[in-house]
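Weekly modeling sync, notes
Attendees: AB, CL, MP (scribe)

Item 1: holo prediction request
CL wants a bound-state model with manganese (II) ion before deciding which constructs to order. AB pointed out that an apo prediction alone won't tell us much about the pocket. Agreed to run with the ligand included and paste results into these notes for async review.

Input as submitted:
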Amino acid sequence: MSEWSDEEAFTALAERLRRRGLDVERVITEGCRLQIETPSWGYGDSGTRFKVFSWPGAARTIEEKLADAALVHRLTGVCPGFAIHIPWDRVSDWDGLRRRAEELGLRIGSVNPNLFQDDDYRLGSLCHPAPDVRRKALEHVVECVAIAREVGSTTLSLWLADGTNYPGQDSIRDRKRRLEETLREVYARLPEEMRLLIEYKLFEPAFYHTDLADWGVAHAVAVKLGPRAQVLVDVGHHALGTNVEHIVAFLLDEGRLGGFHLNGRKYADDDLIVGSINPFELFLVFTELRWAIEDPRTEPHARRVAYVLDQSHNVEPKVEAMVQSVVNVQAAHARAWLVDGDRLRRAQREGDVLEAHRTLLEAYETDVRPLVAEVRRRLGAEPDPVAAYRASGHQQRVARERATAAPGHRGYPGA
Ligand code: AFD
Ligand code: MN
Ligand code: MN
C-alpha cells in the first residue's frame, strides 16, 4: 500500500481541501462518473513504421485483448469501454462478442473502420480519384455501421489517412468534394442512435497534405453532414504549439466535440502514454470539459464526449502502460474539478490575471493521488492500480502463457 493510497491520506487531504471551501464530494462524484474506453489495438503488438517490437505476453486474439481490458477496468474502475478496430478485431459472431464483453464487465465502445491498410488505398480511400476505390472504402465503412449495431455501439469513429505526398499529385478541392460526397452516403446510413466521429491529423502517413488535417476541416465537414457528425480530437495530432484546449473549448461550445483519442506526444509520432509528456495540457483540456458540464447550455453535449485511449506501446509493457494511462487521466480530471470556480470567475471579472492563473495552478499542483484512490475505492477498484498490477504477476503469467505470437493482426504496419 503506498503512503498516498490509504484512507487516512484521503481523510487528511479532504479536510485540507474542505477548509479551502472546495467541494470534495463533487470531485469524487465526477471521478466515479468518468468512463474511458481502452483500445483493442493497445493490447496487441504494435510499433512505428520502422519496427514492431514483440512484447512477451502481448494479447494476440480478441479474447486476450478483452481479458486484458477487463483487468484494466477491474484495477481502475473507469474503463468499461472497449474500442474495436475492423478488420483487426473481426469475429464471426458479433453478438457473441458483445455478450462476451458484457460477461467481462465491458461494453463495446467506438467502432473504428480501417481505410489505411489495403493496397487499393495507396492514393487514398474516400478521397481516392478512382470511383471504384471510393466505393470499396464506402462499403467497408457501411459494414462497420452494421457491426456497430450488432455489438451495441453508438459510435463510429473514422480516421482517414488520405492525403498526398507531392504538390500536383491530385486536386485538393476535388478530394474535398469526394470526401464530402462519400461521407454524406455514410451519414445517410447512420441509425438514429449512432454518431459519426471525424478524426483529423496534421500529417502521416501522407507527407504533403492530409485531407482531414485539422479541426477546422473536420468541423466544416461535420456541420455539412448533420448534428450526429462530430469532431474527434486526437490530442497527439496537432502542429507543435497548438492550443489544444482552445480547440476543445470551441468545439464544446458548438456542440461538435464527439470525443478524444488520448495519448502523449513530444514531436510528431503521437501514441505515448497520455499525460506523460504534457500533463498541464491534459489538465487544461479537462477544465474545459468541466466548464462545459457546469454550463446548462452545453452540459448535455459535454456529457456525451467519448474518452478513448489511442496509444501504441512500443517499449513498455502493454497492460501496465494502459493502467498508467488511466491513472494519468484520472489525476488530470480530478485536478480540473478541484479548481475553485468561484474564485477563478471573480478574478476573471476583476481582470486579476495572476490571481486567475494562480487559481488554476493551485488545483494543478495539488497531489490528488489520495483523492483518486478514494474514487477507485468507492468503485470497488484498486486504490493504487499500478502497484496492484505489478504485484499481481499478470505480466509474468501472460508472458509464459502467450509465449508465441499469434497469426493475424500484429498492430500497425511495422517493418
Ligand atoms: C493511428 C492514427 C489515428 C487513429 C489510430 C487508430 O494516427 O490516431 O485513430 O491509428 O486507427 O494512431
Ligand atoms: Mn487517433
Ligand atoms: Mn494517431
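Recorded for review: The chain has one domain: 34-338.
Action items: CL to compare against the apo run; MP to circulate these notes.
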